[in-house]
Amino acid sequence: MELFKYMEKYDYEQTVVCQDKESGLKAIIAIHDTTLGPALGGTRMWTYNNEEEAFEDALRLAKGMTYKNAAAGLNLGGGKTVIIGDPRKDKNEAMFRAFGRFIQGLNGRYITAEDVGTTVEDMDLVYSETDYVTGISPAFGSSGNPSPVTAYGVYVGMKAAAKEAFGDDSLEGKTVAVQGVGNVAYNLCRHLHEEGAKLIVTDINREAVQSAVEEFGAEAVDINDIYSTDCDIYSPCALGATINDETIPQLKAKVIAGAANNQLKESRHGDIVQEKGIIYAPDYVINSGGVINVADELIGYNRDRAMKKVETIYDSITKIFDISKRDNIPSYLAANRMAEERIETMRKSRRQFLTNEMSILSRGR
Ligand SMILES: NC(=O)C1=CN([C@@H]2O[C@H](COP(=O)(O)OP(=O)(O)OC[C@H]3O[C@@H](n4cnc5c(N)ncnc54)[C@H](O)[C@@H]3O)[C@@H](O)[C@H]2O)C=CC1
Ligand SMILES: CC(C)CC(=O)C(=O)O
């Protein structure tokens, strides 16, 4: 990857490469756009095949956060970190504390939280070194693990998508194929089960699948069979790029609504999905519950306020479908326009110098 070329193409502000030999920390912090406020986005720990893959993931995820935070109406920009390593083997206290010090060095331009491969306990270690971290333990007055709230947001967003596709937002009797039953999806399965949906699940982690089978009466399928399974809703909740040239022809679902970030391998896959008449709930809107929840910590966490805001995901998804129909554009593009318009408006209106830019956080209530 030619880093500067890539950054210029998608207008990234900053990429920070962090290395700490003692702890084994290798982290890439990508800050895409801070027009709306400090960049907030989680930290993913993953075993990448090579450095290029890690850079690309950090950059793509950071851009997604710019759009997610803008579409959610947050006064926050977009950033994300990837730590290169195996979350099951390579973690240690010194690593997350070293990472915390690097974040502190950015002086508030970037605020972190959990993502795939990192936990509340990891963020508590980061908090030992910096205030610019969210999703830490409730014992610190924080909101804890964002995953259950993300799951709730995906659930309400899925209902809005079901209304668009089937004329009714009830998920009772609907068959939902859930790909990945990790932190978010397991909680999503619980909501769906409680409403009477039928679940089909898959995961590379057999124990997670077994739990979903036992607790929710889910049917388990092989990881390669999830796309072609007979279902009403396909819910991608593992990693990104699962909506692509190979998988779209296999899909039988009328709706795609899931938690994963960067579900479309390329933008054009959003066009193809639309042409096939599949209702696609844009990923960064439907999965914004977690960031909405942790962002509330920045103004003094209030769970009721945060959950009320998460419930607006239903209206946001509905609005996107309305724009999509009105302007005859795919839903992913309707979401992008909504986010871009907000960023551009704010970019134009915020020209005068302020001594304390962080104060904008308190105005997002
Ligand atoms: N945790 C959160 O609050 C948020 C998460 N997301 C996104 O949602 C997705 C899931 O996040 P979490 O549940 O936190 O992660 P997680 O790591 O707890 O769950 C992911 C699950 O996917 C499984 N998996 C990985 N590759 C797979 C494959 N090829 N086929 C089937 N299963 C596979 C893993 O074994 C794991 O159980 C990620 O894309 C994440 O970026 C987005 C917004 C917020
Ligand atoms: C996990 C969230 C709190 C933030 C984030 O990184 C995301 O929404 O993808």
UniProtKB/TrEMBL annotation:
Domain Glutamate/phenylalanine/leucine/valine/L-tryptophan dehydrogenase C-terminal, first and last residues per copy: 144-351
Active site per UniProt: 80
Pathway: Amino-acid degradation; L-leucine degradation; 4-methyl-2-oxopentanoate from L-leucine (dehydrogenase route): step 1/1
Binding-site positions, NAD(+): 180-185
GO BP term, example: branched-chain amino acid catabolic process
Entry-linked InterPro entries: Aminoacid_DH-like_N_sf (IPR046346), Glu/Leu/Phe/Val/Trp_DH (IPR006095), Glu/Leu/Phe/Val/Trp_DH_C (IPR006096), Glu/Leu/Phe/Val/Trp_DH_dimer (IPR006097), Glu/Leu/Phe/Val_DH_AS (IPR033524), Glu/Phe/Leu/Val/Trp_DH_bac/arc (IPR016211), NAD(P)-bd_dom_sf (IPR036291)
Keywords assigned: Branched-chain amino acid catabolism, NAD, Nucleotide-binding, Oxidoreductase
Similarity annotation: Belongs to the Glu/Leu/Phe/Val dehydrogenases family.
Official protein name in the record: Leucine dehydrogenase
Organism: Salipaludibacillus aurantiacus
